[in-house]
């Protein structure tokens, strides 16, 4: 039988990225948290953490984290059915991995009513859509919005739709760099804006124009900041159409190649045994994303 105090210590260390902050969350001393981890490792007969900065779960640690995530959600269902068991002083906190562009556009409208009616607090972990699933694989989150279709073991995935990206720049930037017109060669020579090291959208866009290899770019790990840099004339970049309707309508940003866009499919991943809470969130996301995202028809 599991000792869930030990599992809670493991979850806190991974979620809080260290023993000190885990101790604060649990209301324990740092040495007490360390002792609980050592006791858990003694009981399972192998390490559950890699002592790095931040600490990372081992393979057995990931399995235990996945288990405790699902137990928390199932316990919440039981507390709702048996009110006498409800001893929570604070609402449930749901950890979700999400890409920055979804967070900047459709996510708030999709989840606001859910959080209010279910008395849920969210802890959002921002990751690029190409790599967000690693958080769920590590057992750190209960759900994930990302571009990967295949779920991890024990989870389900739901196709939400696609985020449509367009290559945009300010009129001043266009006048400075594309006076002779927008071409693949001119795009490579002009400075671009890239969200982060894992962001491959600009690379894919240029590859679609027949250009591969290195190009100069700013790094800007902020969805809102990305738009401000483009609007300020620092570079060109691929921006969600959903995010810049006003800027496009006013002419502050201009589509460099209106006939060309990139649709990035998004999927919602959640634990198969996530209980009623994740089930309701999944249904709300299904309805909201259907109205906000581009619905791409599957190929033959």
TrEMBL record:
Listed Pfam families: HTH_1, LysR_substrate
Keywords in alphabetical order: DNA-binding, Transcription, Transcription regulation
GO molecular-function term, one example from the UniProt record: DNA-binding transcription factor activity
Entry annotated with the keyword rRNA-binding: no
Stretches assigned to the HTH lysR-type domain: 2-58
Biological function: Controls the transcription of genes involved in arginine and lysine metabolism.
Quaternary organization: Homodimer.
Similarity field: Belongs to the LysR transcriptional regulatory family.
Protein name: HTH-type transcriptional regulator ArgP
Biological source species: Ectopseudomonas toyotomiensis
């Amino acid at each position: 039988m599991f000792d869930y105090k030990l599992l809670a210590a493991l979850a806190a260390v991974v979620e809080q990225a260290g023993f000190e902050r885990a101790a604060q969350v649990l209301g324990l001393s740092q040495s007490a948290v360390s002792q609980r981890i050592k006791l858990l490792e003694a009981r399972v007969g192998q390490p559950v953490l890699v002592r790095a900065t931040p600490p990372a779960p081992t393979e057995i640690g990931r399995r235990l984290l996945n288990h405790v995530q699902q137990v928390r959600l199932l316990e919440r269902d039981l507390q709702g059915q048996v009110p006498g068991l409800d001893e929570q002083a604070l609402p449930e906190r749901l950890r979700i991995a999400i890409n920055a562009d979804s967070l900047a556009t459709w996510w708030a409208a999709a989840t606001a009513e859910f959080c209010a009616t279910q008395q849920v607090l969210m802890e959002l972990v921002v990751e690029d859509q190409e790599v967000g699933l690693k958080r769920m694989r590590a057992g750190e989150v209960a759900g994930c919005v990302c571009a990967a279709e295949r779920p991890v073991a024990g989870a389900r995935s739901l196709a939400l739709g696609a985020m449509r990206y367009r290559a945009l720049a300010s009129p001043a930037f266009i006048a400075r760099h594309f006076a002779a017109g927008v071409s693949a060669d001119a795009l490579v020579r002009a400075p671009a804006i890239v969200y982060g090291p894992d962001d491959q959208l600009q690379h894919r866009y240029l590859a679609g124009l027949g250009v591969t290899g290195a190009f100069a770019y700013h790094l800007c790990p902020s969805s809102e900041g990305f738009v401000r840099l483009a609007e300020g004339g620092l570079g060109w970049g691929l921006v969600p159409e959903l995010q810049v309707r006003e800027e496009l309508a006013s002419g502050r940003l201009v589509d460099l190649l209106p006939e060309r866009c990139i649709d990035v499919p998004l999927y919602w991943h959640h634990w198969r045994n996530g209980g009623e809470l994740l089930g309701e969130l999944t249904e709300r996301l299904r309805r909201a994303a259907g109205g906000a995202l581009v619905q791409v028809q599957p190929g033959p």
